[in-house]
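Severity: low
Component: inverse-folding endpoint
Summary: output formatting inconsistent between runs
Steps to reproduce: submit the following structure tokens with default settings.
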């Protein structure tokens, strides 16, 4: 086993190591002491709240850079490092390990040596475990998915105190709390979503915590809506300013027939391009199998669509395919038809409920109750039918006994919450004014509540 005990021994091990290994060690070193780095966070009237999100941004980008070292992420890391440096005059953050992580490859050991001051023996044991994992051939994604503290976390009480404080703040810190807790626990991260957060425009980050957390809430809502598509759509009544639902009517057979026709046409066009897609490509083979042998199996159709879509996106990322308008069209059609089947086909929806039921079984009861409590606040914006159905679904979610009925209710409720959040966030200024006239208070309060609910839903069991 590798055994490092100080900055010098770590620096010796790091010499000559690949960039992604340096990034991983630096990010995990700084992540371990993120609570300790939140100096002054309890000073409500200070700018330490914004400094905390700057440190969080640096850590997030550093971790994403290790997992997915694209050119865009490298540029984001440079921008984050510059933003961090702008606060270097602040004594409590000048040597912050979180900031060091934003330029990890330049000096990975700096983050580690700073962190070691806070919990020396425990810290170096955990770093040594990471180094040993790399020596044994473990890849970056697996190391990033390992709990930050495999032994006792010396900052557990400090993190719990600061988590409670952040949870009560008006800026909606739910994303950051869940993001950091996932690293602590070694639970899966949605790296695609994290990359999108990391690539938020630097000018938006400069606008402060409330603004950027609102943007993150929109990103989370979109991912949740895509994950839980519905057989109806959310619309705002232009006269009343209330939100209501409109059903989408279609039969299972028509859904499958139309879907296969759309994908077959898109594949035919894509095969005529110079994007690299051919009859030996994974995407083609799975789609051809769908058309030849799976036309009456909607779950197999959806699974094969998903495999083909993953192959296209991975192929574009690693250079097997080249960017092409026809391939992009196939990508879009596959994504749309996957969501269409999840939302509207009875058999596919039933299979998807198994996944939702599993998440609910893993969910902590206090998280479900927080969702139920917060949903009470958004009732004022709901139309008659939407309010009635969300009330029923909320009542089912609150029940302690697990059942298929609870799973169905949660599937519908969670998807509608995501749609509602997206609809309100995209509403025009005139519509917002009309809604506020009906409510008697600002829509921003509803959006803040929805942002927290979406973050809580996404934290369930994952």
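Observed output (run 2 of 3):
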């Amino acid at each position: 086993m590798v055994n490092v005990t100080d900055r010098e021994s770590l620096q010796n091990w790091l010499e000559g190591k690949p960039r992604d290994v340096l990034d991983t060690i630096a990010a995990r070193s700084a992540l371990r002491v993120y609570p300790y780095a939140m100096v002054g966070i309890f000073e409500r009237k200070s700018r330490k709240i914004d400094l905390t999100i700057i440190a969080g941004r640096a850590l997030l980008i550093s971790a994403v850079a290790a997992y997915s070292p694209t050119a865009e992420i490298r540029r984001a890391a440079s921008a984050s490092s510059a933003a961090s440096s702008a606060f270097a005059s602040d004594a409590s953050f000048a040597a912050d390990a979180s900031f060091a992580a934003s330029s990890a490859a330049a000096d990975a050991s700096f983050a580690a040596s700073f962190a070691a001051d806070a919990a020396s023996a425990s810290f170096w044991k955990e770093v040594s475990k990471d180094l040993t994992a790399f020596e044994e051939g473990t890849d970056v994604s697996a190391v990033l998915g390992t709990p930050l503290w495999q032994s006792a976390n010396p900052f557990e009480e400090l993190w719990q105190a600061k988590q409670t404080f952040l949870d009560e703040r008006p800026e909606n810190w739910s994303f950051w709390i869940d993001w950091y807790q996932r690293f602590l626990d070694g639970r899966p991260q949605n790296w695609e979503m994290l990359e999108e957060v990391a690539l938020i425009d630097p000018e938006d980050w400069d606008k402060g915590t409330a603004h950027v957390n609102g943007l993150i809430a929109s990103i989370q809502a979109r991912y949740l809506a895509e994950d839980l598509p519905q057989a109806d759509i959310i619309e705002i009544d232009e006269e009343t300013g209330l939100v209501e639902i409109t059903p989408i009517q279609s039969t299972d057979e028509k859904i499958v027939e139309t879907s296969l026709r759309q994908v077959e046409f898109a594949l035919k066009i894509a095969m005529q391009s110079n994007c690299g897609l051919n009859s030996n490509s994974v995407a083609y083979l799975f789609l051809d199998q769908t058309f030849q042998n799976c036309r009456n199996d909607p779950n197999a159709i959806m699974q094969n669509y998903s495999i083909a879509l993953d192959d296209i996106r991975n192929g574009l990322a690693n250079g097997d395919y080249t960017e092409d308008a026809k391939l992009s069209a196939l990508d879009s059609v596959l994504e749309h038809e996957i969501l269409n089947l999840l939302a509207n086909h009875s058999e596919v929806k039933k299979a998807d409920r198994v996944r939702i039921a599993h998440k609910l079984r893993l969910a902590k009861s206090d998280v479900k109750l927080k969702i139920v409590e917060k949903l009470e606040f958004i009732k004022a914006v709901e139309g008659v039918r939407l309010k009635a159905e969300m009330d029923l679904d909320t009542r089912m979610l609150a029940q302690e006994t697990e059942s298929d009925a609870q799973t169905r209710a949660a599937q519908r409720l969670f998807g509608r919450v995501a749609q509602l959040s997206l609809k309100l966030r995209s509403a025009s200024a005139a519509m917002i004014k009309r809604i506020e006239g009906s409510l008697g208070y600002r829509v921003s309060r509803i959006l803040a509540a929805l942002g927290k609910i979406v973050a809580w839903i996404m934290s369930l069991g994952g």
